[in-house]
Amino acid sequence: MLSWLPENVSTFGGQIDTLFYVIYYITTAVFFAVQITLLVFLFRYRDRPGRKATYTHGNTTLEIVWTAVPAVILAVLALVSRSTWAEIKETQPPSDFMITVEAKQFNWEISYPGPDGKLDTPDDVHMDNDFHVPVNKVVRVQLKSKDVIHSFFVPNFRLKQDAVPGHLIPVWFKATKPGKYEVPCAELCGFGHSGMRGWVYVDTPEAYDAWARDHKVGPAGTTPQG
Amino acid sequence: MSEAIVHAEARGHEAGHHELGFFRTYVFSTDHKQIGKQFLTMGLSMLVLGGILALLVRWELAWPETAVPGMHWVPEPTMYDGIIPPETYNAFFTMHATIMIFFAVMPILVGCFGNFLIPLMIGARDMAFPFLNMLSFWTAVPAGILMLASFLVTGGAAAAGWTSYPPLSAVPSYSGVEWGQNLWCLSLIVVGASSLMGSVNYITTVINMRAPGMTWFRLPLTIWALFITAILLLLALPVLTAALGMLLFDRLGGTHFFLPPGGGEPLLWQHLFWFFGHPEVYVLILPAMGIASDVLSTFSRKPIFGYHAMAFSMIGIAFLSWIVWGHHMFQSGMNPMLGMSFMLTTMVIGVPSAIKTFNWLGTLWGGRIQFTTPMLFAVGFVSMFVIGGLSGIYMASTPVDMYIHDTYYIVAHIHYVVFGGSIFGIFAGLYYWFPKMFGRMLNETLGKIHFWLTLIFFNVTFFPMHILGVGGHMRRIYNPTQYDFLKPIQHWNVVITIGALCLGAAQLVFVVNFFASLIAGKRAPRNPWHANTLEWEAPTPPPHGNFPGELPTVYRGPYEYSSPLVAEDYLPQARRLEPQAAGSAVGSAAAH
Fold first, then answer.
1. Crossing angle, helix B179-208 and helix B86-98, to 10 degrees?
2. A141: Cβ–Cβ under 8 A, 6 or more apart, which residues?
3. Same domain, A108 and A147
4. Domains, chain B, ranges and CATH?
5. Considering the domain boundaries, does residue A226 fall inside one?
6. pLDDT tens digit string along A42-73?
7. Are residues A53 and A13 in the same domain?
8. Together in a domain, A86 and A104
9. Does residue A225 fall inside a structural domain?
């Protein structure tokens, strides 16, 4: 079933997919174990002439086992998920490439620093929905919203983060393969929610530099936001 | 406490002496059984409406922006010659979920089964507060009317999702919805009041009015489930009501509770909503778990496996349900540190659900399983609930949730829990207690056809949603073909919609069975399933006051099937054995 996952092209996407697979294997095994047991019981213990049901109220040992086993499995899953989560959302790797994405009904408004190399200055370069980033570089996105809650979703990066008005939420990614990837809005944001999407173009360094020159985009934002 | 008992006793006695008029018997009845049936009528009608809304949503997703057959009559701007516009689409899925949760599943599981079963199963003549009970139903009715009226006002019904996240829900110009959203808030405030009245009643009744001998650990698990559900509702609903009030003030009174320009905080709504919302999820599933437990034990002809573990795991679920709400908010911008703790609590809440599942399997093990329609639905419940439970582990893991949050994976999960769980539980309960409710048996052949069609098309409808979710398909989008990355999986949307149409059609079998059996079904004997619990001691259908003469006395737990003490394979709770045998029965009841 996981073959339906879109191609992963970000550094942390692989970790997420690994977790996805681990949980997939565990749950699939439990699924078959339980459903097959259920079917076997239904067949074996079906009502037949002369059959008498076993009179029992339970078995303490069994109950302790089937309480402890899922508890341990689930605790381990939480632990292994923990470090990946911390890496993606809690600690942000250092970055010298920063852009702002401001969501509004029903567009992504992208801001790059202008020639001064700083964001939130008058020479910022603005564009709608489509934006370019260099491959193999940590890109920091300052996520904002002008009106309602949107969600910045890049399926190929396994990245999702709500954009909340009144909040400035940093997210990051490092794309590993040049290409063109869709950026849909994942949180219901009004009648135009469907179709609110942009494209992120992951360019080779040369292609990115050429694009940046053409669009008067400065050396990407080294200054924290104001 | 004793006053309530005396009051109920008095009512039971006086009931036999005079006939009530038509209105007091059928409309403004204070009889818990009649009120239960009223909630059932309301719930089933709303289930039909909610289902139709779901099919309209499904049509749009499979064949976007094409005319829905037979819907050309719907006036603009709701539809354009049968084509659903995006505004209406948003209103349809919002109202589908709202109606299903608050006006279909809750009225049936809690309103109908709670009312009908609690006094009968604990051996009481009625609820502790019969008038409050009537008021509870007649408060739910105007709430339903307000909700339905919202379709008719300018701007249409609420369209910000059943979760109604502000600012979208708080500022009319963002959603284009005017009074629809206000009515949505008002309706939920009113229906919340109705549920509160019911909860107070259920809690008081279970605590105070159990029949002699009905100790806590002789209660059927259905009653445990309904009791815990009532406590959850009592504590959760005020939080929702407060949040709804704040949302209304933001919309109408110029406040800024949830609006950043005035210093408000949109995430506050999410915290309040999910603080209510997660216990609410268990409100929708716990009664179904209780019903499934009773039905599985009865038709396995075997005591429930691990009765105490079953009761305590429900209590455990209820406690934990208060500290997991943040798992709905992993990607919301909430401090990621909180994500960690909520992930852990969410993983932990999986444990009691696992215990219950294994205990259900343990109940079947070594049984003498009779495949009646209620049993089929109860087994279906276990099987489908397992899928819903397992898919929940994916989103409990915060990093995986980052990808599947707000996708069809979540939609698949909730429908395996609420349809595969709650609605299968509802059907199990209806087929099981219909004879007691209406005095006639439902037709078994039609019941089995209904079960198999429902099981098959339920899975055709909802299983492929996992695939859509893995493919990244977002929830609540109007036209999936607008996205390049979803084009390769669009055919699944067509499969799902065809499955949903068949699933809807399959329910007609139940409708036919329900009405045909109501009028001409086989007369139900007092205890058609040879079950142990007290409701089967009452005549069929039970008279006003439930138990003619003395209230039954309870001698043992509810699941004494295939007991070695008696020749038959069941030993009712109220059956008194000869002193010698009774002594050992009490001994065995105390031992487990």
1. 10
2. A98, A99, A100, A101, A152, A170, A171, A172, A173
3. yes
4. 1-213 (1.20.210.10), 525-592 (no CATH)
5. no
6. 999 999 998 999 999 999 999 999 999 999 99
7. yes
8. no
9. no
Q: Per-residue b/e over A190-204, b at no fewer than 16 CB within 10 Å?
A: bbebbebbbbbbbbe
Domain range enclosing A154: 98-214
Q: What are the two backbone dihedrals, phi and then psi, of residue B482, each rounded to the nearest 5 degrees? A: -75, -10
- Give the list of residues 6+ apart from residue A28 with CB closer than 8 angstroms, or none: none
Examine the domain organization and report whether A59 and A159 are in the same domain: no
> B402 is written with which tokens?
């980052």
| Co-location of A76 and A56 in the same domain | yes
Instruction: Output the six-digit token pair for B517.
Output: 């059996």
pTM: predicted TM-score of the whole model, two decimal places: 0.94
* Bridge partners, residue A184, by sequence: A197
| Contact: A160, B87; criterion CB under 8 Å | no
Query: Alpha helices of chain A — where are they, by DSSP H?
Result: 13-44, 60-85, 205-214
> What CATH number is associated with residue A37?
1.10.287.90
Cβ <8 Å between B333 and A161 = yes
Contacts of A186 in chain B (CB under 8 A): 405-407, 474-475
Q: Nearest chain A residue to B267 by CA: give it.
A: A164
Taking residues B564-587, report their average pLDDT.
78
pLDDT of residue B581: 52
Question: How far is Cα B569 from Cα B94, in angstroms, rounded to an integer?
Answer: 49
- CB-based contact B397 A147, cutoff 8 Å: no
- CA A103 to CA A156: how far, in whole Å? 20
- Which residues in chain A are contacts of B317 at CB distance < 8 A? none
| B214-249 per-position pLDDT tens digit | 999 999 999 999 999 999 999 999 999 999 999 999
| Residues of B whose CB is below 8 A from A12 | 399
- Cβ contacts below 8 Å, chain A against chain B, sum to 284
For residue B505, which amino acid is it?
A
C-alpha–C-alpha distance, residues A168 and A184, integer Å: 19
- What CATH number does residue A171 fall under? 2.60.40.420
Nearest to B353 by CA among B415, B288, B257, B408: B288
A75 and A104: one domain? Answer: no
Residue B415, both tokens: 């429908």
A126 vs chain B: nearest CA distance in angstroms? 23
Report the distance separating Cα B459 and Cα A214, nearest Å: 53
* Residue B515 confidence (pLDDT): 97
A177 and A105 assigned to the same domain? yes
Region A179-195: mean pLDDT is: 96
Query: A81 vs B483: CB contact, 8 Å cut-off?
Result: no
Given A44, A68, A90, the domain boundary residue is A90
CA distance B405 to B478: 18
Peptide bond into B167 cis (omega under 30): yes
Q: Is there a domain that residue A223 lies in?
A: no
Residues A104 and A199 in one domain: yes
- Nearest-Cα distance to chain A for B80, in Å, is 16
pLDDT at A91: 86
pLDDT band for position B15 (50/70/90)?
A: very low
Residue B591 pLDDT? 42
Interface test with B, best of A31, A59, A81 (most B CBs within 10 A): A81
Residue A44 corresponds to which tokens in the numbers above? Answer: 């074996």
Whole-angstrom CA distances from B166 to A70, B328, B509 are: 37, 15, 41
CA distance B96 to B56: 10
Q: How many domains are there within chain A?
A: 2
- The residue out of A90, A118, A143 marking a domain boundary is A90
Distance between CA atoms of residues B24 and B361, nearest Å? 45
Q: Give the range among A123-127, A219-223, B135-139, B206-210 with minimum mean pLDDT.
A: A219-223
Q: How confident is the model at residue B580 (pLDDT cuts 50, 70, 90)?
A: low
